[in-house]
UniProtKB/TrEMBL annotation:
GO terms for biological process: D-xylose metabolic process; rhamnose catabolic process. The keyword Kinase applies. Belongs to the FGGY kinase family. Residues 254-463 form the Carbohydrate kinase FGGY C-terminal domain. Pfam families: FGGY_C, FGGY_N. InterPro entries: ATPase_NBD (IPR043129), FGGY_C (IPR018485), FGGY_Carb_Kinase (IPR050406), FGGY_N (IPR018484), Rhamnulokinase (IPR013449). One of its GO terms (molecular function) is rhamnulokinase activity. It comes from Pengzhenrongella sicca. This is Rhamnulokinase. Keywords: ATP-binding, Carbohydrate metabolism, Kinase, Nucleotide-binding, Rhamnose metabolism, Transferase, Xylose metabolism. Residues 7-245 form the Carbohydrate kinase FGGY N-terminal domain. CDD domains: ASKHA_NBD_FGGY_RhaB-like (cd07771).
Length: 511
């Protein structure tokens, strides 16, 4: 083994980052080369990703990384479910649509009349969400764009295609489409046929660690990379890379990949495809090294981000009927309060007073989030009045959702959980981590913040031979080199049990 330097490109829903990482025996050292915002654009009423701007951010980051040292390999991970379509000439057909777009409203009811949902779960293991690729493609049926499509590439595969000219489908991200067999780790021809799509719309799936191809000569020249620099398939779903980046010892851990979304889960050897698992809305996404990410998708810090966006645009009131600020630019002259200050004020508010169901679909779309939170809390309890109370409501509700998810997943899988690892941007939120420890009555280990980039880099480095072993060895390297913070459970656990009962009761009573 030798020291290698790889570049991990990690595209989250809120930002993209390009990180150079040196890996070798006992060595894991990351430098953020470039970070750029990921801002959706509404075009003709549809919410899109600005995918060319992401490509520009990636190329700029690669240029900086190369300026600072040799680059042995590159890999890309991103959010799941979304895709681009290529025509017969290999050109992109339109801009990829954002999973938060409302084109899929009503699609679950429609699919429910066509497909046996229980059978779909037994094959794909996937939680029913309207924005899964299956739902998006069902909503797009009959469009000229889909008729012209020769290839479908998931977002990281699309970007890797632009870097290499090679079309591929990486398994972890393919597993989020709900068109993928979770047991065989391959596309499901029957579901693809059901949508009326040709099977070869989907490239053959490859496991993480496979070299996709060398970077194209013109790209290499433009960004200053050496000819032949390999682009590697890693856990190209950001959550899959983040789970590699969990610094756990042993197998008795739960993880929370805590960013725009909160993915709360366990790592298993095989999917759980039971009716009880389906009823619990638990999902089996595929992980690196043949693992299964058995998890629940919780709304996450999106709720907080979207409140901050609202307040920054001058909407100081909690209850209002504001519309989506399409461009995310501050529109008013309100003095926005920074995140640190908001969290400080929230910490001073009383515990578990304002609660919402953090799994509630109503929080999915962009728009006036403070008003939606106030309305949902008010349906069964007190209404948060100030920004500090809204933030407190979000954090307590997330902690409660984590408690619920971990208990459910442990029960459904038979796995014991003794520690919770929180990774991603939200691991820097000490209040949320402490509330999580208290609510789950388990120690929380917080960090690394850039778990996805580190997990991405570790799988590349292993493919190059710079690190040897399975996930335990990769995680041992993380635990030995990354700064982590432990939050021990404290407070009165009855408060959380009562809050859980209150919310459960309210949800049961709701229509
Ligand atoms: P994504 O990968 O989905 O783009 P990240 O993992 O980058 O998301 O997490 C972004 C979130 O992390 C932000 O919405 C914010 O709530 C949280 N965060 C980032 N920095 C801090 C910080 N210094 N303190 C507390 N929370 C933070
Ligand atoms: C997190 C994430 C999550 C998916 C969602 C669409 O970034 O990949 O795992 O469910 O985005």
């Amino acid at each position: 083994t030798r020291v290698t330097r790889v570049v991990a490109i990690d595209l989250g829903a809120s930002s993209g980052r390009v990180v150079s990482v040196r890996v070798g025996p006992g060595l894991l050292e990351a430098v953020e080369e470039h970070r750029f915002p990921n801002e959706p654009v509404i075009v003709a009423g549809t919410l899109h990703w600005d995918v060319l701007r992401l490509l520009r951010g990636i190329e700029h980051g690669l240029r900086l990384a190369r300026r600072h040292g040799p680059v042995d390999a590159i890999a890309i991970d991103s959010w799941a479910v979304d895709y681009g379509l290529l025509d017969a000439d290999g050109r992109l057909l339109g801009n990829p649509v954002h999973y938060r777009d409302d084109r899929t409203l009503g699609v679950l009811a429609q699919l429910g009349t066509e497909l046996d949902a229980a059978a779909v779960y037994r094959t794909t293991g996937l939680q029913e969400q309207r924005f899964n690729t299956l739902g998006q493609l069902a909503a797009a049926r009959g469009s000229a764009q889909l008729a012209a499509a020769r290839r479908l590439l998931m977002i990281p595969d699309l970007l890797a295609y632009w870097l290499t000219g090679v079309e591929s489908a990486e398994v972890t991200n393919a597993s989020t489409t709900q068109l993928f067999d979770a047991t065989r780790r391959a596309w499901d021809p029957a579901l693809i046929a059901h949508l009326g799509l040709p099977p070869d719309l989907f490239p053959v799936a490859v496991e993480p660690g496979t070299v996709i191809g060398p970077v194209l000569a013109d790209v290499a020249a433009r960004v200053g990379l050496d000819a032949g620099t390999p682009v590697v398939a890693v856990g190209s779903h950001d959550t899959a890379s983040a789970v590699v980046g969990v610094p756990a010892r042993g197998s008795d851990f739960a993880y929370i990949s805590c960013g725009t979304w909160s993915l709360v889960g366990l790592e298993l050897d095989a999917p759980v495809l039971t009716a009880a698992s389906r009823a619990a809305n638990a999902t089996n996404e595929l992980g690196v090294d043949g693992t299964v990410r058995y998890l629940r998708n919780t709304m996450g810090l999106w709720m907080l981000q979207e409140c901050q966006r609202h307040w920054a645009s001058g909407g100081g009131e909690v209850a209002g009927d504001g519309e989506v600020a399409g461009d995310g630019e501050p529109a008013g002259d309100g003095e926005p309060v920074g995140l640190d200050e908001l969290l400080r004020r929230a910490a001073a508010e009383p515990i578990a007073t304002w609660l919402v169901d953090a799994d509630d679909e109503r929080f999915l779309a962009p728009g006036d989030m403070p008003a939606r939170i106030a309305r949902c809390a008010g349906e069964h309890g007190p209404t948060p009045q100030t920004p500090a109370q809204v933030v407190r409501c979000i954090l307590d509700s997330l902690a409660l959702a984590y408690r619920r998810s971990i208990a459910l997943l442990a029960e459904l899988s038979g796995r014991e959980v003794r520690v919770v690892h929180v990774v991603g941007g939200g691991s820097q939120n000490a209040l949320l981590c402490q509330l999580t420890a208290d609510a789950c009555e388990l120690p929380v280990v917080a960090g690394p913040t850039e778990a996805a980039a580190l997990g991405n880099a570790l799988v590349q480095a292993r493919a190059l031979g710079a690190v040897v072993g399975g996930l335990p060895e990769l995680r041992g390297l993380l635990a030995a080199t990354q700064p982590l913070r432990t939050h021990l459970p404290g407070g009165d656990p009855h408060v959380w049990a009562d809050a859980a009962d209150r919310l459960r009761g309210a949800l049961r009573a709701s229509p």
